[in-house]
């Protein structure tokens, strides 16, 4: 039954049941008839469609009675965060990538040198290449780090990893992730009724995300903290009073990590239309709002870059932030359009003699390996940074047109997601870890209805499976596979139960694509992780990576196309 009728005896309540204090009478607005559909959806406190009788109360829609009896959602975000933190502590001795040494070196640079030398220091190959706010963030951490282990913050102590260093750095990742927990709780509190239950589930899925577990707590980075800033900024934009703080917070995020520039077009269009221009006419400018926003952003960038501009270091700083000398693809192909392009080029190498296609011999050993300056393809035309920029900008502008016409919060988060998609799919030298740029904002609206969920499913699978090559040691194999599969099964089932039906026809092809795509993931993981090693040993070592990348690219591209359809037809 789509509706559950709960009958509460008013005369003699059952002593064995928890007593619920219902209001004596719910007053509908005068212009709403109790028998109309409007009355069924009118809901001042998430209590839907009350029909009062002398001896009972009939409550339509199953959400409210359960929430009324249970009270607060269980488990809470705090409880899940504590559980996740406990599990992450157990991973302190796990594998750590070179990113661990990168951040240790940045602690040493910011602690040992004055700021005007930070972006010139190159004792280690892992030079400082994040914006100034993140450098200040590292400096703050280094003040505690030198008390824990003074050798940790010495520049010439390369690859230093004492147990104090490992435990301290991993603990800072967990501690700074509290901002993400706070932002997600704020997101839940901003929702009401059935949407609050969906937001609660989505928030827990983010806290327990296998992406954050793999990238931050094993591989090692600070993405949880940074995405906490992003989500907090998105949630603040839900109310008009939060437009200015949202924009300023995002400006601060850009000064923490410049990869979020990919999302800046959505923020620019939304704040321009919703905050700087009149809601009645795009030809009327709210000048005071423009001054407040412009002055705030200028102040933030001034604090971040001003000290370096005073020493004439902006060119050096920009050269560190935007190293275009790197190749089109990373050493492991990120699952995007260029991974599919590279895969086709590899196939054409073998069939080119039959097709009579010319092959560039100098590209056979170096194609798309992600090395500096290495962007050559053997058969297909080469791709330049300018081509990537134009394609990225084009596919970002398309959804922004609708956002400018209708600057609602849902469309804003959707356009942020699509900007993330475009940058990931068409960007230059994209890392596989950047898929979180898409997954995180999409998680906030994935349960809007079943059409959104249909587009989210293949992204959830492909985005997390694509991270598996980051952990290639045997000890971490059961962690990444079992945890990710458990997360996918648990939350995709939960999402499927909570996502409401759409008032528009569902995209039939997208549903079938999701089913087939998810079914293929299990044998693919088994082959790449176990079977290939058993059959081929150390030979053809590129095959598992190529299959994983190509499979994940199909999922991300399919999800992007599906969400574009949903976005423009909603």
Structure description:
By secondary structure, the chain is mainly α. Among the domains are: 77-176, no CATH class; 337-382, no CATH class. 60% of the residues lie in helices and 1% in strands. It is built from 22 helices and three strands. A three-stranded antiparallel sheet has the order 1-3-2, with no helix packed on it. The longest helix is centred in the C-terminal third of the chain and has 29 residues, at 508-536.
In short:
The protein is an all-alpha fold and 570 residues long. It contains 22 helices and three strands. It is a multi-pass membrane protein.
Itemize the secondary structure elements and their pairings:
Elements: E1 6-7, H1 37-41, E2 50-52, E3 57-59, H2 63-70, H3 77-90, H4 98-112, H5 132-148, H6 163-176, H7 178-189, H8 194-207, H9 210-220, H10 223-236, H11 243-254, H12 264-276, H13 287-310, H14 314-321, H15 337-355, H16 385-405, H17 409-426, H18 436-445, H19 450-465, H20 477-498, H21 508-536, H22 542-569
Antiparallel strand pairs: 1-3, 2-3
Helix pairs in contact: 3-8, 4-5, 7-8, 7-10, 8-18, 8-20, 10-11, 11-12, 11-13, 12-16, 12-17, 15-22, 16-17, 17-18, 17-22, 18-19, 19-20, 19-21, 19-22, 21-22
Pfam families: Alg6_Alg8 (PF03155)
Family: Belongs to the ALG6/ALG8 glucosyltransferase family.
Transmembrane segments: 167-188, 194-215, 222-239, 259-278, 290-311, 387-405, 411-431, 477-495, 516-536, 542-568
């Amino acid at each position: 039954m789509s509706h559950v009728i709960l009958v509460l005896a008013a005369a003699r309540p059952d002593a064995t049941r928890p007593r619920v204090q219902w209001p004596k009478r719910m007053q509908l607005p005068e212009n709403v008839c109790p028998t109309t559909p409007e009355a069924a959806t009118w809901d001042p406190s998430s209590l839907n469609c009350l029909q009062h009788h002398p001896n009972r109360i009939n409550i339509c829609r199953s959400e409210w009675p359960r929430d009324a009896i249970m009270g607060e959602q269980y488990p809470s975000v705090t409880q899940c965060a504590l559980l996740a933190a406990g599990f992450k502590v157990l991973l302190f001795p796990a594998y750590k990538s070179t990113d661990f040494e990168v951040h240790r070196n940045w602690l040493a640079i910011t602690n040992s040198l004055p700021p005007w030398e930070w972006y010139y220091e190159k004792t280690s190959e892992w030079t400082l290449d994040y914006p100034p706010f993140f450098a200040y963030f590292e400096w703050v951490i280094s003040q505690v780090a030198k008390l824990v282990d003074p050798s940790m913050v010495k520049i010439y102590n390369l690859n230093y990893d004492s147990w104090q260093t490992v435990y301290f750095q991993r603990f800072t990742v967990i501690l700074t992730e509290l901002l993400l927990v706070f932002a997600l709780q704020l997101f839940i509190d901003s929702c009401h009724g059935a949407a609050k239950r969906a937001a609660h589930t989505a928030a827990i899925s983010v806290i327990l995300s296998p992406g954050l577990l793999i990238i931050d707590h094993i591989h090692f980075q600070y993405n949880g903290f940074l995405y906490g800033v992003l989500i907090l900024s998105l949630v603040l934009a839900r109310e008009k009073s939060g437009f200015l703080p949202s924009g300023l917070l995002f400006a601060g995020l850009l000064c923490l990590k410049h990869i979020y520039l990919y999302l800046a077009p959505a923020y620019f269009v939304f704040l321009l239309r919703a905050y700087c221009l009149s809601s009645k006419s795009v030809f009327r400018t709210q000048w005071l709002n423009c001054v407040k926003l412009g002055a705030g952003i200028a102040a933030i960038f001034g604090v971040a870059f001003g000290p370096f501009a005073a020493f004439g270091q902006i060119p050096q700083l920009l050269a560190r932030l935007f190293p275009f000398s790197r190749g089109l693809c990373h050493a492991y192909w990120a699952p995007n359009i260029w991974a599919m392009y590279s895969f086709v080029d590899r196939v054409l190498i073998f069939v080119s003699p039959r097709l009579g296609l010319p092959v560039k011999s100098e590209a056979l050993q170096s194609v798309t390996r992600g090395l500096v300056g290495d962007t050559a393809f053997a058969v297909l035309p080469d791709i330049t940074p300018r081509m990537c920029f134009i394609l990225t900008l084009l596919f970002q502008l398309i959804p922004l047109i609708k956002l400018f016409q209708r600057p609602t919060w849902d469309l804003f988060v959707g356009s942020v997601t699509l900007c993330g998609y475009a940058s990931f799919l068409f960007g230059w030298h994209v890392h596989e870890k950047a898929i979180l740029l898409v997954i995180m904002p999409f998680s906030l609206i994935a349960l809007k209805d079943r059409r959104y969920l249909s587009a989210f499913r293949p992204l959830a699978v492909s985005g997390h499976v694509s991270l598996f090559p980051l952990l290639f040691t045997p000890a971490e194999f059961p962690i990444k596979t079992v945890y990710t599969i458990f997360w996918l099964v648990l939350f995709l089932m939960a999402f499927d139960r909570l996502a409401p039906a759409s008032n528009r026809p569902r995209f039939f092809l997208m549903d079938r694509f999701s089913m087939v795509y998810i079914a293929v993931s299990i044998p693919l993981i088994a082959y790449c992780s176990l079977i290939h090693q058993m059959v081929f040993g150390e030979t053809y070592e590129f095959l598992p990576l190529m299959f994983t990348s190509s499979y994940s690219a199909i999922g991300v591209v399919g999800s992007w196309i599906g969400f574009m359809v949903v976005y423009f037809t909603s």
